[in-house]
Amino acid sequence: MRLALLIPPIMLLAACGQDKKATDETEVSINADGDGGNVQIISGKDGGKLKVNGDGVNIDLNIPDLGDMELGSDFDIDGVKLYPGSKITAMDIKANDKNGASDAVVKFGFTSPAAPATAADWMAAEFTKKGVKITRTGDTLAGTAEDGDDFRISFAPDGTKAKGEALIVSK
Predict the structure, then answer these.
(1) Residues near 5 by Cβ (< 8 Å), separated by ≥ 6?
(2) Per-residue model confidence as pLDDT tens digits over 71-105
(3) Is-contact 111 161, C-beta < 8 A?
(4) What pTM does this model have?
(5) Would you say 63 and 48 are in contact if contact means Cβ atoms under 8 Å apart?
(6) For residues 6-21, b (16+ Cβ closer than 10 Å) or e, as one string?
(7) pLDDT digits over 8-24, tens only?
(8) How many angstroms separate the most distant Cα atoms in the chain?
């Protein structure tokens, strides 16, 4: 089962910082389905669960908290990162690999220290510098990455700052 290959790296990822007190409320959810079974991983500041069901395998484990992971610094689309100082607050990954067809949807929730228009302006300028064509509707940016994945990044007010969602669809 190819999905079982996800287990070791995810366990290492989930164990990062387990001896440290969690400072952020980042949550990670990964759901992967395939012909041979599925993998579900849910983790947040208080720990989570790993479930694997497949051909002769049934695993249900508790996993430690995410600790002080720096997820925001690793996010980029064609070299464009989130607005400086932004923090990822949630991550949801759904992947399917059935009948020879595969697809994935990745959704990130984030906060930004700037107002929505400022953060959207900055990211739009960064995409332009990298030669990535985008469309903009209000404070929402959309485009297609170099690898063919479609993306949408939306910003909304959160007091004087912004909160947002980045959605990446891989076909």
Answers:
(1) none
(2) 455 678 999 999 999 988 888 878 776 776 677 88
(3) yes
(4) 0.64
(5) yes
(6) bbeebeebbeebeeee
(7) 444 444 444 444 444 44
(8) 52
Strand partners, 42: 29, 49
Main-chain phi, psi angles of 149, to 5 degrees: -75, 135
Q: Quick check: 109 and 89 in contact, CB under 8 A?
A: yes
DSSP secondary structure, the chain, as one string: -GGGGGHHHHHHHHHTTTTS---S--EEEEEEEETTEEEEEEEETTEEEEEEEETTEEEEEEE---TT--GGGG--BTTBPPSTT-EEEEEEEEEEEETTEEEEEEEEEEEESS-HHHHHHHHHHHHHHTT--EEEETTEEEEE-TTS-EEEEEEEEETTEEEEEEEEEE-
State the burial class of residue 28 (Cβ atoms within 10 Å of its Cβ: 0-12, 13-18, 19+): buried
